[in-house]
Inverse folding.
């Protein structure tokens, strides 16, 4: 795009892309990172989200440095972790995993953490950690069966997507909704704006 600096989203997530688009920003490139997301021994949810966001940003930076078109771009990376207490829930890949997550979340509070990492054109790192508290209703056998059959849980942290059918399970949410979807918009835009990215550039054509 002419008229603004380039921006790379270090993610292949359609949800994160959709949230950036909602904010009037169309990334110049998507660079999902293939990194090991397994928590280290004793690693707490907050630390995991922060570490993985930075690792994704660093992986994207290595690619950007080699690409003449993208060199000097802003890089945004994020990682979202769902936790009950200190217990980190997986990104559900199997029916059994998703069922175990949903049974654990049923009728209780959990926390969703997103680490956001911004790398500026001068390769300065800026990070934020955002926490949202979510409470699910008590899920009936029918709720579980129907949700698992939908397949919407696949690849989602904690085995659910709040922007989809699982939104009907949420009794209470305290904090950022976009954080639970996968990219806390207020914090991301504040980071970008604070480092000189023209966050309102696309707003004139947003409607």
């Amino acid at each position: 795009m002419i008229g603004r600096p380039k921006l790379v989203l270090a993610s292949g997530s359609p949800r994160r892309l959709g949230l950036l688009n909602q904010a009037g920003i169309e990334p110049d490139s998507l660079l999902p990172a293939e990194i090991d997301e397994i928590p280290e021994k004793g690693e707490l949810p907050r630390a995991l989200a922060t570490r993985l966001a930075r690792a994704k940003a660093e992986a994207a930076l290595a690619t950007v440095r080699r690409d003449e078109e993208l060199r000097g771009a802003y890089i945004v990376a994020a990682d979202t972790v769902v936790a009950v207490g200190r217990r980190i829930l997986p990104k559900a890949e199997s029916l059994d995993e998703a069922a175990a997550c949903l049974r654990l979340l049923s009728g209780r509070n959990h926390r969703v953490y997103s680490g956001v990492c911004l790398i500026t054109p001068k390769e300065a790192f800026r990070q934020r950690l955002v926490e949202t508290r979510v409470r699910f209703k008590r899920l009936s056998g029918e709720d579980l069966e129907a949700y698992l059959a939908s397949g919407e849980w696949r690849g989602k942290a904690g085995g659910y997507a709040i922007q989809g059918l699982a939104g009907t399970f949420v009794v209470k949410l305290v904090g950022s909704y976009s954080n639970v979807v996968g990219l806390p918009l207020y914090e991301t835009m504040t980071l970008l704006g604070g480092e000189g990215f023209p966050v309102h550039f696309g707003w004139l054509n947003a409607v």
Remarks:
- The first strand starts at residue 7 and ends at 9.
